[in-house]
Write a structure and sequence with these properties.
The chain has 15 helices and 12 strands. The protein is an alpha+beta fold.
Length: about 425
């Protein structure tokens, strides 16, 4: 979600009320409003209109979701629950029910598919739709968006926000500005005028660090970035990033809505038979899991730009953390090094809080080789070693050879799914 554009509490909401030329705004981005919290409120009508937080209170629980009323106090997803309650001490705590979220997601996606076969789910609560082919039967893109919003409310009791535009980026931008429970149409002819005054953080893929780098170079608005020479942008974000951001800043986005299934992430996790309170054991396990993720990425000719870890404690509290890499990778050792740094930054005392589960995931998947390697590749030796290991594993089986600390354990951990553990971690 582009929270860098509109405030997450909906205080700068923008919706379309006047007539606009929406004839070419055939790409819709539909995003459910505070999805997890809204689902919980269906069974808690007494909490509607009040600050409410989804998550587990006590200990080191984190916020899973929050109503817009709670967000106005500064509460955000992934925030420690203790911090959230300091910001909003009157908040109602709602325990999460993930099976409900899956059920309601399926209902919403079914509505989308009844409108158009061209649906590209992005996550459990958002999707792109191409409605160009539905205009003859259902009307203009704006009318179709209104129909979708009405059906979602009628059939689920939930609300959604919709952005309609000529490209995926602009549609997603529009839905973010329309939250909550709104519809914003950005005609393609208005794209450039709409983009130029926005802060650079509005652009897809510009996080806090990239935004800071661009601002240090004097690029504070999308207009500044759009007018900058490519060579200047390359110094800030590299060649591939520079061209992508320059295109977005100038309203260019050629991506189409795609319906074929492609994994958004590749991950492995392990639930220990006995809770672990030893850092060396956790480090070895994360190394093993990272190797498995790297192997799968190479097998499918993919690379990941983001590394995420998942940690579940003995009391079933779960946290996830991630970081974006300077360059995408499918090298298991690089994934591990990044993952372990994320883990260390948590500053956990595992003797006090034993760990039940640990996992790693590669996200923002790209085709391998899509970005040219730098002149100096710090992972070159690891890369070649792991390719050699792939060849040995293909011939003799996984675990024949590998890191010394893992070889003796590789056979018993060859396939988590054999003992009921799930090695695929596609989304939370």
């Amino acid at each position: 979600m582009l929270e860098g554009v509109g405030r997450a509490d909906g205080s700068d909401r923008r919706v379309t009320t006047a007539d606009v030329d929406d004839s070419a705004a055939t790409v819709l981005h539909v995003d459910m409003d505070a999805f997890f919290a809204s689902v919980e409120l269906l069974d808690r009508p007494d909490a509607r209109g009040k600050p409410a937080i989804v998550g587990h209170a006590g200990g080191r629980g984190v916020v899973t979701s929050a109503t817009y009323e709670a967000r106005r106090f500064g509460v955000r997803s992934a925030m420690p629950m203790a911090q959230a309650l300091r910001l909003c001490p009157t908040a109602i705590i709602l325990p999460p029910h993930y099976e409900k979220y899956t059920e309601y997601s399926a209902r919403v996606m079914e509505i989308f598919h009844e409108v158009t076969p061209l649906v590209e789910p992005l996550s459990i609560d958002e999707a792109f739709l191409d409605v160009a082919g539905a205009r003859r039967l259902l009307g203009s893109p704006r009318r179709i968006a209104e129909l979708i919003r009405a059906r979602v409310v009628e059939e689920t009791g939930l609300t959604c926000s919709v952005g309609a535009a000529g490209t995926k980026f602009m549609a997603k931008l529009a839905s973010g500005r329309a939250k909550p429970d709104g519809l914003l149409v950005i005609p393609p002819s208005d794209t450039i005028a709409y983009l130029r005054p926005l802060p650079v953080g509005a652009l897809w893929g510009v996080g806090a660090s990239t935004q800071a780098s661009l601002e240090r170079m004097g690029m504070r608005t999308v207009a500044d970035l759009a007018d900058a020479p490519i060579a200047v942008l390359q110094r800030a974000v590299g060649d591939a990033g520079a061209r992508r951001l320059h295109d977005l800043a100038n309203g260019r986005d050629t991506r189409r809505v795609v319906t074929e299934s492609r994994e958004k992430s590749v991950g492995h996790e392990n639930t220990f038979g006995v809770d672990v309170d030893d850092l060396d054991t956790l480090r070895r396990e994360l190394l093993r899991l990272s190797g498995r993720v790297g192997e799968r990425l190479r097998k499918h000719a993919l690379e990941g730009r983001t590394v995420a870890i998942k940690v579940r404690f003995s009391d079933f509290r779960t946290i996830t953390r991630s970081r974006t890499l300077a360059e995408p990778t499918n090298v298991g050792r690089r994934l591990f090094e990044e993952a372990w740094q994320i883990f260390e930054a948590l500053e956990l005392d595992v003797r006090q809080t034993p760990i039940r589960l640990i996992g790693i995931r590669a996200e923002q998947l790209l085709d391998a080789g899509g970005d040219a390697l730098a002149l100096w590749d710090p992972d070159e030796e690891w890369r070649e070693t792991e390719r050699a290991l792939d060849a040995v594993s293909a011939r003799f089986g996984r675990g024949t050879i590998g890191p010394a600390s893992l070889v003796k354990r590789a056979r018993e951990a060859d396939d988590e799914s054999k003992d009921g553990r799930n090695p695929r971690w596609v989304s939370d």
